[in-house]
Amino acid sequence: MVESANRIYAIKTTAKQERTVADNIEKVTREQKDIHVVAVMVPEELKGYVLVESPDAIARIEQLVELIPHARAVVQGSTALSEVAHFLVPKKAVTGITEGTIVEIIAGPFKGEKAVVKRVDTGKEEITVELYESMIPIPITVRGDSVRVVERSDEMS
């Protein structure tokens, strides 16, 4: 049997069930040897969809979807790896954070505190902030993934 090139299919899922669907795809394909799945991807930016790489035709993927809870349908057509390759590159934690941005600290000893960004170090993926409610402005350096943006500096006018 000559195996054709792999295609990437998008599977529509129930909201916030992408990870569950991906786990179930792995379990079902382990049991169902006639359905071939090479890779499963759950991009953070693509809410409500799971990407599946397979040499099989779309009809086979539709059969797979019927076996999996929270999987709704297969988007018609397939895509090339070049179109989804940007999902494979990790995004910097400090992307979109600039000086003057108001953030909430979501991890560490200052969890729940709001702060103003004073400096961004993209190389180390760290930001230096000053707490909002503190009487004395003390700079605190935290990891970029330890904060959540509350208000961007360009929104403040």
From TrEMBL:
Domain KOW, residue spans: 96-123
One molecular function GO term is: translation elongation factor activity
Domain NusG-like N-terminal residues, every copy = 5-91
Pfam families named in the record: KOW, Spt5-NGN
**Domain of life of the organism in this record?**
Archaea
UniProt keyword annotations, A-Z? Elongation factor, Protein biosynthesis, Transcription, Transcription regulation
The family database entries (InterPro entries) matched by this protein are listed as:
KOW (IPR005824), NGN-domain (IPR005100), NGN-like_dom (IPR006645), NGN_dom_sf (IPR036735), Rib_uL2_dom2 (IPR014722), Spt5_arc (IPR011590), Translation_prot_SH3-like_sf (IPR008991)
* Spans through the membrane: none
GO BP: any one term: regulation of DNA-templated transcription
Which CDD domains does its entry note?
KOW_NusG (cd06091), NGN_Arch (cd09887)
Question: What HAMAP family would the database entry show?
Answer: Spt5_arch
Subunit structure and binding partners? Heterodimer composed of Spt4 and Spt5. Interacts with RNA polymerase (RNAP).
Enumerate the NCBIfam families for this protein.
KOW_elon_Spt5
Similarity remark: Belongs to the archaeal Spt5 family. Belongs to the SPT5 family.
Q: What does this protein do?
A: Stimulates transcription elongation.
- Protein known as: Transcription elongation factor Spt5
Q: Which organism is it from?
A: Methanoculleus formosensis
Q: Which gene encodes it?
A: spt5
